[in-house]
Amino acid sequence: MSSEGDLVFLAGHGPVRPDGEYVTGKVGQELTVEDGQAAARLTGLALLSSLKGEIGSLDLVKQIVKVLGMVNSAPEFTDQHKVMDGFSDLMVEVFGERGRHARSAVGMVSLPIGLAVEIEMIVEVE
Fold first, then answer.
1. How far is CA 67 from the centre of its chain?
2. Which CATH class is domain 2-125?
3. How is the chain split among helix, strand and coil, in percent rounded to 5?
4. What is the reported pLDDT for 1?
5. Which residues contact residue 95 at a Cβ distance below 8 angstroms, ignoring those fewer than 6 apart?
6. pLDDT confidence of 5, banded at 50, 70, 90?
7. How close are the terminal C-alpha atoms of the chain, in Å?
8. Above 90 in pLDDT, residue 65?
9. Phi/psi of residue 64, each to 5°?
10. Can you give the pLDDT at residue 3?
11. How do the domains of the chain map onto residue ranges?
């Protein structure tokens, strides 16, 4: 994580279950779109935890600016954008209009330790 002026850049995070285990596997193969959405939501929670640790309070968030979502995808899978809805919906739940953001959703042949998704984001803060 780094910051530049009023922007905070969060490095890629993955989906961590409450028991501390990562969600792994390929969406469109071992995982369904719904599984991927749940993994993206968990990743969003991990990002928010890191962000809060860095800035002290999520009340300081002015806007979620830009998000890159990488989905560990089976070769024929083309619904990465639907997987990322799990993350985007969470940001709107938490921040309302301040949670709406520009987004890229891309498929990857693999991710570190087999993660189902990896997401990084840029946040404007007060």
1. 7
2. alpha beta
3. 40, 35, 25
4. 66
5. 58, 61, 64
6. confident
7. 17
8. yes
9. -80, 115
10. 59
11. 2-125
